[in-house]
Design a protein that fits this description.
- The complex is a heterotrimer of chains A (389), B (131) and C (346).
- Chain A has helices at 22-37, 54-57, 63-70, 89-102, 122-130, 145-160, 164-178, 192-196, 260-273, 290-299, 308-314, 330-334, 338-354; strands at residues 4-11, 46-50, 80-83, 109-115, 200-203, 205-206, 216-224, 236-245, 282-284, 367-374, 379-386.
- With 389 residues, chain A is an alpha/beta fold.
- Chain A has two domains: 4-121 and 214-236, 3-Layer(aba) Sandwich (Peroxisomal Thiolase, Chain A, domain 1); 136-211 and 238-386, Thiolase/Chalcone synthase (Peroxisomal Thiolase, Chain A, domain 1, 3-Layer(aba) Sandwich).
- In chain A, helix 7 crosses helix 11.
- With 131 residues, chain B is mainly β.
- Chain B has one helix and eight strands, in the order H-E-E-E-E-E-E-E-E.
- Chain B is globular, with a radius of gyration of 16 Å.
- In chain C, strand 9 and strand 10 form a beta hairpin.
- In chain C, helix 1 (19-26) packs across helix 2 and helix 6 packs across helix 7.
- Chains A and B meet through helix 5, helix 6 and strand 5 of A and helix 1, strand 4, strand 5, strand 6 and strand 8 of B.
- Strand 5 of chain A pairs antiparallel with strand 4 (52-61) of chain B, so a sheet runs across the interface.
């Protein structure tokens, strides 16, 4: 296996992008990644596209071909593959790209993700997202995604004494980080009261506990580590790429407050990178809901199980804290264009490790981790990146 | 869900008929046709659950998908059946009454319908077990 | 005749709306309506309840009450005037949900408020002829009253199931007699949400003529008189009609009292007098005799004579009584009622 590096990154702004279509979004992200990598389009060997639900959101499948075509690569006939694992589609597309380069099958690979979520009404969006859960045994009973995470939150509060204010602290922190990210959907500060007084979605989760509905795309260019320096002075190296599966349904999870797929993927990643949670300087984690970030920092081993709420409240995960979490603003403030999210996390890590993250720059960051989750925890993808090989 | 897809699950949904593995004694609801413990060595047979259990966790859904918006706010819960397996369903009671550990029993209710012209889906929800 | 009731089960949704609450919406005088109808409140189905779910709960209670093996039920008929499907049986869902499928015959019945008693008679014939061992007859409704119409004060929801057989009877059916004419006092056309009715025409030429004719016809055939019975139950569209018809026939208020459930329940249509019979069986003693006459608009009446057996004591507590299901209701306002009844269209 070859070592792999990210040699270029690109990302559209995230938000309700009424005047941009799915294909335009992906092309925009892809082009900026290629320009960033200083690669000619003809050098690209393969494309991987993370997307959850083109079929429901834009009534379009066969996205691999669409993206290759509109990227101007149809005449080169390069392989282009759509990758799907619900909200982990982006992280998984990245992982497929990494595997392709590591294996020696391809050299220059674009791994991207895109979702266009605002072309349909919110009820359709809710239902399409609910397809990430078990349609036959959760969806038919009226389960929604906020509903499933709300049940995790309820039990976490019951078992560990986690408080609503601690959930809210995740949103407040991520909104603060978002103010420093010009691409974020929300760039405004909020207070604990903003969250606690917002509309209830699925008790105890309120609107401000939830990531928004977002359009956006992101892409990275991958290359073998040994030739990365030909393209960039600041390659970011993939130290680990790990993926794990768990039960599709939340009710079948051994411990409802633990995403055991996250634990498994993280353990594999730490082993592969020869690191421990203590070595991670910062992380982009899957905060589709505030409770999800609390579970993530526990399941990734940054804090003990049950202490995620208190750790967040203490400022441990803020910029300048012991381990900054979601410097980009996370899914909560940056936005969550489902298929793009997992790739956007890698874009943020790259910017941070290169020292190009602007006002939200974490000084001296050497090792960063991304954590991308599909559904209520049926799939988890963890990557570890470093400035050094 | 489409009519054939619902129809295949109808006996499970109406009467809490799941499966169990005769090899390891594992209970499965929702039903599984492959035992996750014994896998190919398992012996899976149908099993009818009594329909009593307790609330493991719950939420009150205020914002629902289209087919369920007439029901809001409704209680969505994970129920642990007395025989062991857990499932997702609704609990029918005042939202102020529901709590973790609440004892419940099955009730026959409408799950949803495909518009005024379409098929009506029935199945099992849960109500508080009287003391 | 050697057939009888082997078990019975009832179901009443837990929600109620008071007559005052409905009267308030229409600017009507609640007291005069209560006096006129002798109904104080009526049951309202939950948003996810309908004729089928109510029939299933009643049927399961009937099966559980006497520990019946559902596979022995070889015929099942659900009587209702609010079947959720115009075409597709309610009874198939019920049979599947009680575990009676697939070796049985079934169909849905409709005869306004007497479809349930017609189902009892059908089962009686099939059991008596040894065509089947056990038959289940259900009356279940989530009845409709147009907003502001007099029916809105009484149109309630509930269901009752009787299992008819030869062995292990809790009440022997001594005889039955029906009286039927074509009298259009009440109807609902296909596809229409609410029924129409003939106002006071539903009284003399409808209810009173048919109930008295069927009741007198049965007593004449059997050679019995009102004083031979411990209890009597008549169809209960309101409290006034059954009280008056009892008096006309020579029954006393004491005889009809245990079965007069309408003041606290409303009219459960196909379940109406079957509910009154269930409430009477809940308190009856062995050897008690019960007289019952249903009424269905359109119009017809089925009269029955029952004699309770020793077995009643054994199965009485196997399922909830009518009194238990009437107790501890949850009162709702008109807005919630309108939501529950689907009067608010999205």
């Amino acid at each position: 296996m070859r070592d792999v590096a990210i040699i270029g990154v690109g990302c559209t702004e995230f938000g309700e992008l009424w005047d941009k279509s799915f294909r335009e979004l992906f092309v925009e992200a892809g082009v900026s990644a290629i320009e960033d990598a200083n690669v000619q389009g003809g050098k690209i060997d393969a494309l991987y596209v993370g997307n959850m639900s083109g079929g429901r959101f834009i009534e379009q499948e066969h996205l691999g071909s669409l993206i290759a075509d509109y990227s101007g690569l149809a005449s080169l006939h390069i392989p282009s593959t759509r990758v799907e694992a619900a909200c982990a589609s982006g992280g998984l597309a990245l992982r497929q790209g990494i595997i392709a380069v590591a294996s020696g099958y391809h050299d220059i690979v674009i791994a991207g993700g895109a979702e266009k979520m605002t072309d349909v009404g919110v009820e359709t969006t809710t239902d399409a997202l609910a397809a990430a859960a078990d349609r036959e045994w959760e969806g038919i009973m009226g389960a929604t995604f906020p509903g499933l995470y709300a049940m995790i939150a309820r039990l976490h509060m019951h078992k560990y004494g986690t408080k609503q204010e601690q959930l809210a602290a995740v949103a407040v922190k991520n909104h603060h980080n978002g103010t420093m990210n010009p691409k974020a959907q929300f760039q405004n500060e909020i207070s604990i009261e903003t969250v606690l007084n917002s509309v209830m979605v699925a008790d105890p989760l309120r609107v401000f506990d939830c990531s928004p509905i977002t359009d956006g795309a992101s892409a990275v260019v991958l290359a073998p580590a040994e030739i990365a320096h030909k393209f960039t002075d600041t390659p970011v190296y993939v130290k680990a790429s790990a993926q794990a599966s768990g039960t599709l349904s939340l009710h079948d999870r051994p411990d409802i407050t633990t995403l055991d797929a996250t634990v498994a993927a993280a353990n594999r990643a730490y082993k592969m990178a020869k690191t421990t949670p203590k070595d991670i300087d910062f992380a982009e984690v899957h905060d589709c809901f505030t409770i999800a970030e609390i579970c993530a920092i526990e399941d990734l081993g940054f804090v003990k199980k049950g202490e995620g709420g208190a750790a967040t409240e203490s400022g441990m995960t803020a910029l300048g804290g012991k381990i900054p979490i979601n410097p980009s603003g996370g899914l909560k403030a940056c936005g969550h264009p489902v298929g793009a999210t997992g790739v956007k996390q890698a874009v943020e890590i790259t910017l941070q490790l290169r020292g190009e993250a602007g006002k939200r720059q974490i000084e001296g960051a050497e090792i960063g981790l991304t954590h991308n989750v599909g559904g209520s925890g049926g799939t988890a993808v963890v990557h570890i990146f470093g400035r050094d090989r | 869900m489409s009519v054939p897809r619902f129809w295949r699950r109808l006996k499970n949904l109406y009467n809490l008929i799941g499966t169990r593995c005769e090899k390891c004694g594992g209970f499965y609801y929702p039903p599984r046709n492959m035992c996750p413990k014994c896998r190919r060595n398992g012996v899976i047979v149908p099993f009818k659950y009594k329909g009593t259990g307790e609330v493991v966790t719950f939420t009150i859904v205020h914002s629902a998908a289209k087919d369920y918006s007439m029901l809001t706010p409704y209680i969505l819960a994970i129920i642990k059946l007395d025989e062991g397996p857990r499932l997702t369903s609704q609990v029918i009671c005042d939202p102020s009454e529901v709590h973790i550990g609440m004892k419940v029993k099955s009730a026959f209710r409408k799950l949803g319908e495909e518009s005024d012209r379409g098929m009506i889906y029935y199945g099992t929800k849960f109500i508080p077990l009287e003391k | 005749m050697s057939v009888g009731i082997v078990s019975y089960g009832v179901y009443i949704p837990r929600y109620r709306i008071k007559v005052e609450e409905i009267a308030k919406v229409w600017g009507a005088n609640a007291n005069s309506i209560i006096d006129g109808l002798m109904v104080y409140e009526k049951s309202v189905p939950d948003m996810d309840e309908d004729t089928i779910t109510i029939a299933v709960e009643a049927a399961r209670n009937a099966i559980n009450r006497a520990g019946i093996n559902p596979e022995k039920i070889e015929a099942l008929y659900t009587g209702s005037e609010s079947h959720p499907y115009a075409v597709k049986p309610s009874s198939t869902v019920v049979a599947e949900a009680v575990g009676a499928t697939p070796d049985l015959t079934l169909a849905d019945f409709e005869f306004a408020c007497k479809a349930g008693t017609a189902a009892i008679q059908t089962c009686m014939g099939m059991v008596d002829s040894d065509m089947i061992e056990l038959g289940m007859a259900i009356g279940s409704d989530v009845s409709q009253g147009a907003p502001g119409d007099a029916l809105e004060y009484t149109a309630a929801a509930g269901g009752v199931a009787y299992i008819i057989g030869k062995k292990n009877q809790v009440a022997k059916i001594e005889s039955t007699y029906s009286f039927t004419t074509d009298t259009p006092d009440f109807w609902r056309r296909e596809g229409m949400p609410y029924p129409e009715h003939g106002g006071r025409f539903t009284g003399e030429p409808g209810y009173f003529k048919h109930v008295t004719s069927a009741a007198q016809g049965l007593m004449k055939r059997m050679g019995t008189k009102p004083s031979d019975y411990d209890y009597a139950v008549f169809h209960q569209p309101n409290g006034k009609f059954p009280t008056r018809v009892a008096k006309m026939l020579g029954f006393t208020n004491e005889q009809i009292k245990p079965g007069l459930v309408v003041p606290r329940l409303g009219n459960t249509y196909s379940g109406s007098c079957m509910m009154g019979l269930a409430a009477t069986l809940d308190i009856a003693k062995p050897d008690d005799r019960i007289f019952m006459t249903s009424f269905g608009s359109g119009a017809g009446s089925d009269a029955f004579s029952f004699e309770v057996t020793d077995k009643i004591e054994e199965i009485r507590n196997g399922a909830p009584s009518v009194e238990k299901l009437l107790a501890n209701p949850v009162y709702i306002n008109y807005a919630t009622y309108a939501r529950h009844k689907g009067k608010i269209k999205l």
